[in-house]
Amino acid sequence: MAQRKFKIAASLICGDHASIKDDIAVLEKGKVDYLHFDVMDGVFVPRYGLYPELLKGIKEITAIPIDVHMMTEEPARYIKEFAEAGADIIAVHIEACKHLHHTLKLIRDAGVKAGVVLNYATPLSALDYIMDDIDMVELMAINPGIVGHKLITGTMKKIADLRKKIDESGKNIFIEIDGGVTPESAPEMVRAGADVLVCGTSVIYKKEKPLDEKIKELRELINSKQ
Question: What pLDDT digit, counting tens, does each position of 71-116 carry?
Fold first, then answer.
């Protein structure tokens, strides 16, 4: 059986923000595929996240694509600002949008790839009428907004079900998994159908080794278990 290709996104909110420029240089060395940029409003989730001025500054120092995860109520109000700051992908929570189709149109009209995020309990049927309007589905494998939560039981089946749904649709939509990515769960996530793994404190942001070494180790681990 051929190995499934996969990509790694580094969750910037898990790093040391005082040394983010240095961290990005090491992530480039490790050939990370995406920078995952969490935006939180303290309402949709109980904490605050990263901001457009930081995104703009990061875009000036790296060519790594930036994937913006909007954990906010009514994210449509922020699309223009983050698109202009340099987002390559903007993903919004289905649960937070009153007018989802309109919000996705705003993202694509801004020249940015559009994604939707599903909390664990949100059924995949929520995607039925927007498959033509999205480039990515981000599945939450934990409850959003809190770093370090444990993987929700049943996540692997949901990944596999989503993989089947997308493949049967014939659409070019990739699956990103956010939360619960560990050395133990990552290989199974890829086998189930994940395309991108968002990696944070449980995988690459560990103090004992440089970021690039942790990325290399994770790639080798996943490939060895396919």
Answer: 999 999 999 999 999 999 999 999 999 999 999 999 999 999 999 9
CATH classification at residue 151: 3.20.20.70
Q: Could you tell me the pLDDT band of residue 1, with boundaries at 50, 70 and 90?
A: low
The tokens describing 159, both together, are 């990944």
The number of helices, as runs of H, and strands, as runs of E, in the chain is 7, 8
**Residue 5, exposed/middle/buried by CB under 10 A (0-12, 13-18, 19+)?**
exposed
**Cα–Cα distance list, 217 to 33, 148, 149, 166, 222 (Å):** 15, 20, 22, 29, 9
Contacts of 194 (CB under 8 A, 6+ apart): 6, 159, 163, 175, 176, 177
Residue numbers of the domain that contains 23: 7-224
Please report whether residue 207 resides in a domain: yes
* Distance between CA atoms of residues 37 and 147, nearest Å: 13
Tokens 């990061």 belong to 58
Enumerate the H helices of 89-199 as residue ranges.
100-109, 155-169, 186-192
- DSSP H or E segment with residue 57: helix 52-59
Structure tokens at 105: 């149109």
- Tell me whether residue 214 is in a domain: yes
- In the chain, the number of structural domains is 1
What are the residue numbers of the active site?
A: 38, 178
List the one residue out of 198, 88, 69 whose CA is nearest residue 141: 198
